Amino acid sequence: MPDAVPVPDGMPIRKRVSKEFGIELLDTDVKFITPELLVVEEVLKRFNKKKRKHHLIGVKQVVKNKEARVRLLKALVHAGGAYDSDNKRIYLFDNLELKKIPEVLTHEIGHAVNHFNLEMTKFMKFIADSGYNMTEFRKYFAPGNRMYQIATMKIEVPKDRWQDLLERFSLKSLARNEDIFGEMIVDNGKRKKQPWDENPLEKFAWVYEWFADRNEEFKEMAQRSAENGDETWKKDYEFLQKEVFKDEE
């Protein structure tokens, strides 16, 4: 007689989420416990209200995991979760506190929205409005130099030309702050002390999280920043309002 297979914790919750949202809640090298599954379900329910259900088209799995966190730590990246766009999978890491699940899950849903709900033309506008600049390192022939005949010239790309260069960028290249050829960089001039300064995709996910979960606080912060001369946060708020959450009542 074959050994009995243990039933995972919270099986009724997993079945409800699968039926209602088409999303699997899965264990890997670590396992969800029932309270965690209940919190995940409550977060997903919020996206079934205010016409937000379409925000979940880029999410097919929510997985509890340790291995991916350890792998990121080797690259000196500290995170509570991650998003795998190739598999439409959200990772919630093993060291994530129960009370932190809502904000981390919303943040990773923001990454999914960036990948599957937002046109590249609009995302490039978001990047420009967020205070990023684009620099091209253009190669040219340098005659008379016997050792290095190919040199590079640093050229600032005007923002009214960005839309003409869309084919040179992908979301994966923008996660590295560059184009797919490594010849153009996007940079906000900051030292990346804050996690949202890491790259444009992180900036979008943080802004998405704040707009979804801390809207009034975000709006007030954006207004204060504008009054102090920094319009970027206000532009980010307005972008999310117009382009991402525009169908809400």
Can you give a write-up of this model?
The mean pLDDT is 89. Helix 4 packs across helix 7 and helix 7 crosses helix 9. This protein has two domains: 99 residues, Hect, E3 ligase catalytic fold, CATH 3.30.2410; 100 residues, no CATH class. A hairpin with an 8-residue loop joins strand 5 and strand 6. The chain starts with 10 loop residues before the first helix and ends in a 5-residue tail after the last helix. It has a four-stranded mixed sheet. A three-stranded antiparallel sheet has the order 6-5-7, with no helix packed on it. It contains nine helices and seven strands; from the N terminus they run αβαβαββααββαβααα. It is an alpha/beta fold and 249 residues long. Helix content is 41%, strand content 16%.
Q: Which stretches are low in confidence, meaning pLDDT under 50 for 5 or more residues running?
A: none
Shape: globular
Please estimate the helix content: 40-55%
Describe the oligomeric state of these chains in a short phrase.
single chain
Count of β-strands: 7
Strand order of the largest sheet: 1-2-4-3
Number of domains: 2
Distance between the termini: 57 Å
Q: Specify the structural class.
A: alpha/beta
What is Rg? Answer: 21 Å
User: Biggest β-sheet, characterized?
Assistant: 4 strands, mixed
Mean pLDDT: 89
